[in-house]
Task: structure prediction
Amino acid sequence: MTILGPALSQSLVLNDKVASALDYARRYRDARAEAMRMSIETRHKIARVYEQAAEEAARVVRDGLERWLSTLTTDRWESLASQLKSAANGLSAGTEREGIALIKQTASLFPEIDADYLSRIAKLAGADRLTKAGFDRMVSGISNRVVESMVTRMWSDGYTFSERVWGGVQSDWYERVRMTISGGIAQGRDPIKIARDIQVYTVGGKEALLGRWGGLIPGTAQYAKRIPGRIDWRAMRAVRSELNASLQDAGLMAGEANPGATGEYDWILQNGRLHYNCECEDLAAGGPYAADDIPSYPHPNCSCSVRPRLRDQKAFLADLKRWAHGEDVDYIDKWYRGTFKPAAENGLYVPRVFNRVYYAEVVEA
Result:
């Protein structure tokens, strides 16, 4: 079940201008759904990147084999392979571009909720020093840090996102295209058909490819066995893992920048699942967690999130009113000097980095 925390069972609506704790939880849930919607759009974009790479590979194969098929020497095959690797480079560049764009789009979703919550309650408290521009710059600082973390994040397999894209994704696709070409040549297929085979395999997988090949002539069944069942969408899985990890980081950083939060976090289970064959249910039941004790990203493609727990809203409003009228409120003073003021005056807010382990997906060939 989803753990909401004690405050979320209370009716804490001050008036219609400030969200209740329940509404805060709902907005986090909706933001998570919006991130998933954006990821579907990115999946379509990456599918197009694969198609473009296949189109380029098909052109290379068609032109090269039409000239050289009868005399495909080692040197000519190497020239063909070099051009195919150029298409693979395009695949990696496109995947990296779309992955980073997705994280940039979604990095502010959670921080904006906390900033909006603070902005509304600050207005009620008469805290004029807490300006919308300052909150906007806080959100920008968190978003930038989330993107930086995505670029530098080291997964448990020792690779960053970029290294996974330019290594595993690129080499995987190139090897599958090479197998498709070899299988077509072994069957004596003409270059135009082999070129089309690459495009069909990229979109429809092995089943679609073998449908084009028809009955295999003796000696070529080994190629069918060696070609994997479908194009490995390792690129999209890498992007999806980065999105999930980045959303967890964004929630963590948003809570640290929110003095209306307690400093504790709940582990929120992925919506819509009936069964969890992982430790995430135990992690949800084990909360709340201090920021430094939030569990590591527990398994590949974990879609759970972390959400800050709010202070009692009435008590926080009372503290903020006292602070706005010149009284000392230690936790608000510390937050204002260390977080809000640098952001509002200088546009500088750099959230701290949390040392967490991110478990990479093991992909079967």
